[in-house]
Amino acid sequence: MEIRLKEKIIEGGLLFASLLTILTTIGIIWVLFTQSVGFFTEVSLWEFITATEWTPLFTKKSYGILPLLAGTMLTTFIAIAVALPLGVTIAIYLNEYADKRFRAYIKPMLEILAAVPTVVYGFFALTIVTPFLKLLFPEVASFNALSAGLVMGIMIIPMISSLSEDALFAVPKSLREGSYGLGATRLQTALRVLVPAASSGIIVSIILAISRAIGETMIVAIAAGQQPNLTINPLETVETITAYIVQVSLGDVPYASIEYRTIFAVGLSLFIFTFILNNISFYIRKKFQNKYE
Amino acid sequence: MNRVNINRYKDLAFQVVGIISTLVGLVLLAIFIFSIIKEGIARIDLDFLSSLPSRKAEKAGILTAWTGTMWIFFLTAIISITIGVAAGVYLEEYAKKNWFNNLLEINISNLAGVPSVIYGILGLEIFVRTMRLGGSLLAGSFTLSLLIMPIIIVATREALKAVPSTIREAAYGLGASKWQTTSMQVLPAAAGGISTGVILALSRAVGETAPLIVIGALAYVPFVAKSPMDEFTVLPMQIFNWTSRPDHDFVINAAAGIIILLGITFLLNGIAVYLRNRWQKKISW
Question: What number is the ipTM of this complex?
């Protein structure tokens, strides 16, 4: 009897721990929504999504998220443009070409790229990459989207490479052998048989990488600047949603003021974007998980 | 040249492209780290480690920053391991397959994708404001614990999954209860995998900056924290603060701080990889 009671109590405790994860989600949504409601009673949703200037900290205030969105998309686009070709090439190379020993050594080393703290990457971007870019493009701003995007791209290489590699690895041997049997080279097999067969896994890796890049904060806060800018020119200073949240947090805006609430409104937008992307990837993974089993 | 040959050359060319792609990120990182070491290594001495922050670059040190990082490491470890491992055990060993536990799973994979800065916003409202913890070590540790919880839960589940069911059945066969089986047989067998995941998660927590900025951790803290309720700074905050100053002497300080932070990060990752390899070798079910 006593043991049974003890077992019940322990199971209850374990259940409670896992319920905390639900509470965390509820907490995030609740906090973002309640504070955003305060924001949207003063600023119309229409202004928020259509106005082309973001100047809540100035005397002449305008609350259009588009410039922050443009900064976020620009740095994300550059990062993916770096990480996608490199990541997929690495995945193909390690799976089809590299010998096992090399692969065993290089995989944990690639993971290091993702383990370096982002503040360190920000420092690299600002003090090493930007001066280098200035040699190539003299007109580049001291804080610019290109430098931050490039460095962010390096950081997310292992995300794309390791997930894509898993996907390639899961392609059944028979497909590979069939292709070789028809006289295809390794490259032809990789590009025309394996990559199409593993496409759902590769797409998942790209979506997760985009989600990660959108939410990345320190690299862009340090190297891309703090000037909302509706532009697609990577050489200009921009501000991302995340960098704006950092900017407001570092200043001292009064609690519950409209300036304070802006971080919840833009935070909610950020949360919605990443939430949608993560769920798309989750859906794809579930749907195609057993394709070859 | 016929098409077969062209395709063979393409195949060879790709091999070269593959090696270059694999190494380019690592080579760039090596260049970055080398230039940081060149810039900052001369700045590291006992004074740098034992001095309080200062408005003068050459007098400033990282005493409050590294002690803060230690505090955060241990507090976050206590909180996140307790809750994360418990949740992982529940989901893997106790939960039955039903809609609710399915929801729990989807939810955890969603939480893993929430940007760290959003956790900062959550921490700001819940721990700093509602629970009135202020910008304290405790508020910071709670926030970071929530951030790394999904990593620990997933690692715990993977490790438990790797324990063969024969071990559980043997324990049940000897009359052990569910919890006795789990705590005395399954958890010890999974300890290697779990600790690998926990250390990687803590390494992530130690390197985080954004959520701590949002909850209002200060860059300038002129005293060493003595209790979990004290205000604090950590190495990444100090590095960020120094990086954003125009004066080049502070950039040198930032480089020196980065060397220490990277040292901690690589040490933790090294321990995790070592544990993983050792456990994989030792146990072959």
Answer: 0.93
